[in-house]
Amino acid sequence: MIAEETLLVQLKEEESRSKAFEVLVNTYKERLYWHIRRIVLNHDDADDVLQNTFIKVFKNIEGFKGESKLYSWMYRIATNESLSFLKQKSKKSGISNEDLQQVLVDNLQSDVYFEGDEIQLKLQKALATLPEKQKLVFNMKYFQEMKYEEISEILETSVGGLKASYHLAVKKIEAYLRED
User: Which of 25, 48, 50, 115 has the greatest number of C-beta atoms within 10 Å?
Assistant: First the structure.
């Protein structure tokens, strides 16, 4: 795998940009896809959001100042693109974001790309009841096994705040699973 600093230099130089971008996409597409998929829940939507994420990365790479890791910056873009996508989808549907979450979870069973069992489905239903930030933190910590420091960089939130959000999310999920 190419070093992030080398990749950044290549991305900012005209002659090497397209080859470097191809390396960037191949390096991060799967991790970003699953991050997005856990937010939007639908395979086709995740593909669309992933494509939009990479378009934004390509268009804005010149402005990347290196104040965070390239990886964190792309995750932040993917997160924002996913949340914007869900807001637009709920607006188009004329339903609240919470109701949209329920619809998406209900549709998971018929999604041919969803490989989860009954327990996974219950967990997704529990996640759908969480506030946006708690859901993001839980997904990144539990599913992607990210460190609080990484999540902090991506979501631009304190580590202490993230730990509190994760703890609350776990308690709410446990309560949801107990009552079901």
Answer: 50
Backbone φ and ψ for 145, nearest 5 degrees, come out as: 50, 40
On whether the CB atoms of residues 75 and 34 are closer than 8 A, the answer is: no
Block means of pLDDT (10 residues each) for the chain, length 180 residues? Answer: 82 91 95 93 92 96 87 94 90 77 68 64 84 92 93 93 96 87
Spatial CA neighbour of 137 closest among 129, 176, 145, 111: 145
In order of 78, 120, 148, the CA distances from 168 in angstroms are 24, 20, 15
**Which residue carries 């996640």 as its tokens?**
127
Residue-wise over 25-55: b if at least 16 C-beta within 10 A, else e? eebbeeebbebbbbbbbbeebbeebbebbbe
pTM of the model: 0.79
Query: What secondary structure letter does DSSP report for 142?
Result: I
Residue with tokens 């290549």: 10
The answer to whether the CB of 70 falls within 8 A of the CB of 8 is: yes
Spatial distance between the Cα atoms of 115 and 13, rounded to a whole number of angstroms: 41
Residue 97's CB is within 10 A of a number of other CB atoms, namely: 13
